[in-house]
Amino acid sequence: MPSDLDTASYRTAVSHFATGVTIVTAAGESGPSGLTTNAVCSLSLDPVLMVVCLDLTSRTLAVVRDKRRLAINILAQGQQDLAAAFASKRPHPEKFDGVRWREADGLPVLDGVVAWLAGDVRELIPGGDHVMAVVSVTAAEAPGGEPLVYYRSGYHSLAS
To answer: What pLDDT is recorded for position 2?
Structure first.
C-alpha cells in the first residue's frame, strides 16, 4: 500500500525515540569489521535472542552473512568518537586503528563498553533497505557505566 509519508517526516518522528548506541562487530577473513547502529533490541528470553538491523550496503553485513556470527557492543557515554568512526565508510582496518579491543567468544569486543553480547545468526530477514539479523546469544557481559544515548539526532547521557 502506497504511503504519503515523506522520508523527512518519518526521520523527524523516529528521532524522538531515544535509543542506545551500539557497534556491531564481526570477525572476517581479513580481520575485524564493524558498524554503528541503534536498531538493536532484545527479542526473547527463552531462547535468548536479539535483533540487529544492518544496512544492505554495509561491508560488515557481508562478513555477518559469511560467518553467521556477530557481537553487539553497547557504547558508554564518552564513546561518541568511536560511534562516528564506525559509522563512517572508512575501510575496516582504519576503523580499528587505535581502538582497544579483545576477542571474546571468537568475536571482537570493544574495551570500555557498558555491555556486550555475542552470538550466532539464526536468521537474516529482508526489511526494506536493511536486513534484520536474529541472533542467538551465546555470551554476554555487562561491565557497567553510563550508556551513550541517541535522541533527536544527537548524543546524550541519561542525566541530560
So the answer is: 57
